[in-house]
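Supplementary Data S3. Sequence and structure tokens for construct A.
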Amino acid sequence: MTARTPATPTIKGTTRLYAVLGDPIAQVQAPGLMNPLFARLRRDAVLVPVHARPEHLEQIVRGLQRVENLDGMFVTVPHKVAVRRLADRCGPTVDIVGSANVLRREADGSWLAENFDGSGFVAGLVGAGHDPHGRRVALVGAGGAGSAVAAALLTAGVDRLSVYDTDTAKLGALVTRLGAHWPGRVRALTGPQLGDIGIGIAVNATPLGMRADDPLPFPLDSLPPGCVVADIVMKPRETRLLREAAALGHPIHHGIHMLEGQLNSYRVFFDLR
């Protein structure tokens, strides 16, 4: 029997466009999830990767916003904070966390920014049997994705969230913003050592792990037994952090679950039925 190959999108003059922006871009997984979704829904649409360097981001976004058959943009590293100011309006999550991972063209031609990284991450955790409710969680990375994940974990009812980032100004700003919404449940860590706080879930929300020679975002030797080690890096699937955590007997949680957890939110946000 001949194996079936995935259906190739048929690009026509009527095709609606979506773009995913990042630097680098080769690691993005969104086209592999969204294009099959468009096909299943019989939508005449395609999502394509766009390599946008930080110094060119505004020019690229402004240009794409003027493409009449482009309905939305997905945003990945390192643009999630910067892209917020390029939208006309922001959803409530963006206002809290200060970053966006998706933009939608509105009926009047304006652009709305929203962030589903955090809700997608939590949905993936819960789906894998790692419900964060009532647990102590440590998060390394206070950037665009990390900020969204932090807010979603607090919304999901974590008992205590401890956050670390090498950028102390960024870390302090995030803890202050989160503390205004969830007083007494967030604290900043002075270093990446996480094992002394009784945590049940440790999360890497930095880009460390995308390259083979990246250092670990946090040491594993002091984590308590049974602590779940989660990564938001999607490619490679098995980062060094996850490989070494699994070798030590820790349950691990892959980055692709964060994107998979966002699919339903994207369907609603872009009205994909």
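Construct B, processed identically:
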Amino acid sequence: MSQVSITVNGRTMTGEVEDRTLLVQYLRDNLGLTGTHVGCDTSQCGACVVHIDGRAVKSCTILAVQASGSEVVTIEGLANGQELHPVQAAFREHHGLQCGYCTPGMIMTAVDMIRRHDGDLDEKTVREELEGNICRCTGYHNIVKAILSAAEKSGSGDQRIAAE
């Protein structure tokens, strides 16, 4: 067993975990943050994407002990109370989901993508950057529309898009 201390969605969480515990398991099983999904257990699908120290990471690829001392933001930490994060709002507005299983990972990936590109995105770039996220329902068209819409709004001064 190892001691971990991780700031998750602004709150420092401390506890013991088995050394082999994946971050996704820690978030879901220990903290009850079930918005981060487990899709494939092989880091192929992207359903488990969270932000670690401001960067999108597949939480099934990192041990909880490796994240100790880091700041983690999950899908539950994006919204400001009842106000959706602009990327979440864009997914709702543009119907960027169907079953919703991939949606948290897609949104977390999109927020990071918009931040890294300063909102300067085109369809080709968005589609290339989504290659690590699998959606079996939508065909990606509305997901791409949602991300481009949120990116466009970030260029018009909406500072919440790239901030958490």
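The first helix runs from residue 23 to 30. The beta strands are 2-8, 11-17, 49-52, 55-58, 71-73.
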